[in-house]
Write a structure and sequence with these properties.
It is a single chain. The protein is α/β, with parallel strands linked by helices. 49% of the residues lie in helices and 19% in strands. A four-stranded parallel β-sheet has the order 1-4-3-2, sandwiched between helices. The chain is globular and about 35 Å long. The two termini are 16 Å apart. The relative contact order is 0.24.
Length: 118
């Protein structure tokens, strides 16, 4: 997982770099607390209706998402997660980062995550 400051690269610049690499980008908008972060991941990555909006469900759904990329022949995906400043102080920020890193490892080169610190 890569981590950038929004002062270094804008979302638009990162999307261009992702497209230039032949990948599809999905932008996860910022949220201020854990439940909202989990909800926006579910919306952007189109998790199923039964998505539990908790850390375990995020982990499971990310693995399913990674499987869907490779099984359906979709182009590799880079998730651009915009991290709101208030959320970085939440202890679940580190846990979500670990879950995202695990999903990257699971998916190989089919899934990459970049956190953009706002």
């Amino acid at each position: 997982m890569k981590i950038y400051s929004a002062d270094t690269w804008s979302i638009e610049e990162l999307q261009e770099m992702v497209a230039d690499a032949g990948r599809r980008s999905l932008v996860v908008p910022p949220a201020d607390h854990k439940k909202a972060v989990l909800e926006v991941f579910g919306e952007v990555l189109d998790f199923p209706e039964h998505y539990g909006v908790d850390l375990d469900a995020l982990n499971d759904s990310l693995h399913d998402f990674a499987d869907s990329i490779t099984e359906n022949g979709h182009p590799a995906v880079t998730v651009l997660w915009q991290v709101a400043a208030p959320f970085r102080g939440d202890r679940s920020f580190g846990i979500i980062c670990e879950i995202l890193q695990d999903a990257e490892s699971y998916a190989g080169d089919q899934l990459a995550v970049t956190a953009v610190l706002l």
